Amino acid sequence: MARLDVIIADITTLAVDAIVNAANSSLLGGGGVDGAIHHAAGPELALECRRLGGCNTGQAKITGAYSLPAGKVIHTVGPVWNGGGQAEEALLAACYRSSLAVARDNGCRTVAFPAISTGVYRFPPAKAAQIAVQTVMAEVAQALGAFDRIIFCCFDEVAADRHRRALDELGALVPGASS
Ligand code: APR
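Above: inputs. Below: predicted complex with adenosine-5-diphosphoribose.
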């Protein structure tokens, strides 16, 4: 079973096989973690993204990472929160599922996720953390050794606590998990 860790870090600094970007459907960059990833990767990332023709909400596409220490960037588009009546929860789960499927298809064994949709897209962060942890745990359990380590890369202590609590509640907090 892959190790699941919660850390507090800037995802652009992580030397993992793949970092996940909380992008928008154009894949042409933006603010937040999307802006940080494009800034750190350099202009070639946008050039490659331009050739992908966008991405639907809940789906994921992979590119190179260029000047980033990560090996690849997996771009996924989270749902904008509109009160919960437009399948937002299912679409957020699909982001984690699609990203792990793309990672697995590309041999990425260590993957770091930001808290998708919890910034500009206004998804309730505690619920998002539960969905993130539940979905990743279920996918990793079925992946039969495809992954070594999945990181929930939080940008602050509050977000990290939410993810740790979700892991605790699911009884999955592995000994020595990074904080
Ligand atoms: N490393 C890790 N996490 C980060 C970083 C970073 N460098 N920068 C921001 N975050 C965190 C935020 O604190 C938030 O918890 O990423 C989470 C997602 O926030 P956003 O980046 O705003 O992403 P999202 O809510 O999914 O909105 C996506 O915002 O930037 C635009 O182009 C993007 O249109 C898209 C939308």
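The beta strands are 3-8, 18-23, 60-64, 72-77, 110-113, 149-154.
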